[in-house]
Automatic annotation (TrEMBL):
Record-given protein name: LysR family transcriptional regulator
Species the sequence originates in: Piscinibacter koreensis
Single Gene Ontology MF annotation: sequence-specific DNA binding
Bias type Basic and acidic residues, positions: 309-318
Lineage: Bacteria, Pseudomonadati, Pseudomonadota, Betaproteobacteria, Burkholderiales
Ranges annotated as biased composition (Pro residues): 298-307
C-alpha cells in the first residue's frame, strides 16, 4: 500500500511541474525513476495519464480525472495524520488571505468572529484584489477564488459553489420593459464584467443546448459590487451571484429575469494554496473551517450583521451618560437623531 501512496505523490508532483526533471528535483529523485513510476502507473490503470511532447507533459482527460481522485486520497491521509499527530500544535501566527472584496464581505467576514474565537492567538491579514496575485511574491497563504482555476503548480481545493442570476431593478424594467426572451434581452442595456473575463459571456439555454449570450451595454467592470450597485440604481440588467444579490431579490430591490433561459450554473469556489505537503496548522484550520461553514452546496446570502446584545446595552449606557452629562455651559445636550440639523 505504501508504494501506491508514493506513486500518487509522484504523479501529483509531475502533474504540478509538467516535467519529469522538475518533479525529480522537487522530490530529490532521478528523472528516469520518476518516468518509470508513471509508466508503471499507466500500465496498471490501462490508460495514458500524460501526453508527452519534447517540451512538456500535459494531462490527458483520464489524467485530469485521476488527479482529482489522487488529490482527495492524499488530502484524506494528511488530514488523518493531522488529527492524530498534530492536534496539539498551536494555531497561531499570521494567516494572509487574498480574495475580492465581495467574496470576503459576503462569505468570509460573517464567520471570522467565530473562527478567531476558536483561535485567539491567530492574526489574519486580508489582501483585497479583483484578480489573483502572485501568492509567493505577496506571501499569501490562501487565495479564495470563484470560477475555474487554470492549471498551475498551486493546489485548488473546492470549498463551495455559487449560483448566478440575471436581474434588474423594478425602476429599470418600468422604464425599459421586461425582457421575456433572449431576443428581447439583445435590446437591453446589460451591465457586464470586463471583456475577456470568463464571466463576460452569459450561459443561456437555447432549446436543448447551452450557448453563450454576449450582452451589450454601456458599462463593464471587474467589480461585482459596482455592477450590483448600478443594477439597483436602475442603469441596466446584470448577471450576479445569488449569494451576492439574494437579499436584494428577497426585498424586491432587484427582480430575477429569464429564469427559464438563464442556466442555473453552479460556479465552483476554490481555496488555492501552495502545497498539499506540510500545511501549517493555521492554513489547515482555516481550510477545514471554510469547508465546514460554506460546504459544496450553493452559497446563500448572509443577512447583514446585527449589533450584539452586549454592544447594544453598552451603547444604551453610553447614551444615558451623555444625556446626563452637563455641558460647559451647564445645560444638558440635545439628543441627536442623526439628521441634517434643525
Amino acid at each position: 500500500m505504501n508504494y501506491k501512496i508514493r506513486e500518487l505523490d509522484i504523479f501529483l508532483r509531475v502533474s504540478d511541474e509538467s516535467s519529469f526533471s522538475a518533479a525529480g528535483r522537487a522530490l530529490d529523485c532521478d528523472p528516469s525513476t520518476i518516468s518509470k513510476v508513471i509508466q508503471r502507473l499507466e500500465d496498471r490503470l490501462g490508460v495514458r495519464l500524460f501526453n508527452r511532447t519534447s517540451r512538456a507533459l500535459a494531462l490527458t482527460q483520464e489524467g485530469k480525472q485521476f488527479r482529482e481522485a489522487a488529490q482527495r486520497v492524499i488530502e484524506a491521509i494528511e488530514e488523518a495524520e493531522t488529527a492524530v499527530g498534530c492536534r496539539d500544535r498551536a494555531v497561531d501566527g499570521v494567516l494572509r488571505l487574498n480574495s475580492s472584496l465581495a467574496f470576503i464581505q459576503y462569505h468570509v467576514a460573517p464567520h471570522l468572529r467565530e473562527f478567531l474565537g476558536r483561535h485567539p492567538r491567530l492574526r489574519i491579514e486580508i489582501v483585497l484584489t479583483t484578480t489573483p496575485v502572485d501568492m509567493f511574491e505577496h506571501q499569501i497563504d490562501i487565495s479564495l477564488r470563484g470560477g475555474y482555476i487554470p492549471d498551475s503548480s498551486l493546489v485548488a481545493r473546492r470549498i463551495a459553489s455559487s449560483r448566478w442570476i440575471i436581474c434588474a431593478a423594478p425602476a429599470y424594467l418600468q422604464r425599459a420593459g421586461t425582457p421575456k426572451t433572449l431576443d428581447d434581452l439583445q435590446s437591453h442595456n446589460c451591465l457586464n464584467f470586463l471583456p475577456g473575463s470568463f464571466r463576460s459571456n452569459w450561459p443561456v439555454r437555447q432549446g436543448d443546448d447551452i450557448a453563450g449570450f454576449e450582452p451589450k451595454g454601456n458599462v463593464s467592470s471587474n467589480s461585482p459590487d459596482l455592477l450590483r450597485w448600478l443594477a439597483i440604481d436602475g442603469l441596466g440588467v446584470a448577471r450576479l451571484s445569488h449569494a451576492h444579490v439574494g437579499n436584494d431579490l428577497a426585498r424586491g430591490v432587484l427582480v430575477p429575469l429569464l429564469e427559464r433561459q438563464a442556466v442555473d450554473v453552479e460556479e465552483p469556489v476554490f481555496a488555492v494554496y501552495a502545497s498539499r505537503r506540510n500545511l501549517s496548522p493555521r492554513v489547515r484550520a482555516f481550510l477545514d473551517f471554510l469547508q465546514e461553514r460554506l460546504s459544496p452546496s450553493p452559497m446563500e446570502p448572509v443577512p447583514p450583521p446585527q449589533p450584539r446584545q452586549d454592544a447594544r446595552r453598552h451603547e444604551g449606557r453610553a447614551t444615558r451618560r451623555l444625556r446626563n452629562s452637563p455641558t460647559r455651559g451647564g445645560a444638558a445636550p440635545a439628543a441627536s437623531t442623526g439628521g441634517r440639523g434643525q
